[in-house]
């Protein structure tokens, strides 16, 4: 029954829209430090910008080559974006944005990994 429901929602196959959404989330993460008071936290700006750029690039690469390592790296980058506010100790609106955007990347990466669990995509 669950497979039938998921199949009707087209969540059992890796879809192109998922990679496009990951790219959009990566771009949003990349530019997000520009919308907050980041003058005192250079480490946050650098690490979030790198994570956002990595997520953006990984989403683009997944458009060309579907590999598990891309989804796993997107998962790690999303998890970092989600945890960065607590590790680097910053708050405000950026904390909420980074937790939310990071969680969205993590959820999409987990969905994509689940969709591809029966495929041999390790290479």
UniProtKB/TrEMBL annotation:
UniProt keyword annotation of Transmembrane present: yes
TM helices/strands, residue ranges: 20-36, 42-60, 72-90, 96-114
Keywords carried by this UniProt record: Membrane, Transmembrane, Transmembrane helix
Domain SPW repeat-containing integral membrane, chain residue ranges per copy: 17-110
InterPro entries per the UniProt record, alphabetical: SPW
Pfam families according to UniProt: SPW
Source taxon at top rank: Bacteria
Protein name, per record: SPW repeat-containing integral membrane domain-containing protein
């Amino acid at each position: 029954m669950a497979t039938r429901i998921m199949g009707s929602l087209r969540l059992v196959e890796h879809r192109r829209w998922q990679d496009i959404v990951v790219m959009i989330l990566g771009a949003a993460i990349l530019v997000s430090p520009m919308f907050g008071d980041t003058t005192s936290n250079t480490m946050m700006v650098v690490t979030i910008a790198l994570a956002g750029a990595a997520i953006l690039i990984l989403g683009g690469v997944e458009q060309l080559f579907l590999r598990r390592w891309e989804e796993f790296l997107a998962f790690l980058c999303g998890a970092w974006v989600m945890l960065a506010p607590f590790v680097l100790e910053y708050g405000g609106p950026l904390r909420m944005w980074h937790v939310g955007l990071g969680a969205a990347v993590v959820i999409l990466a987990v969905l994509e990994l689940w969709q591809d669990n029966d495929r041999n995509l390790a290479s």
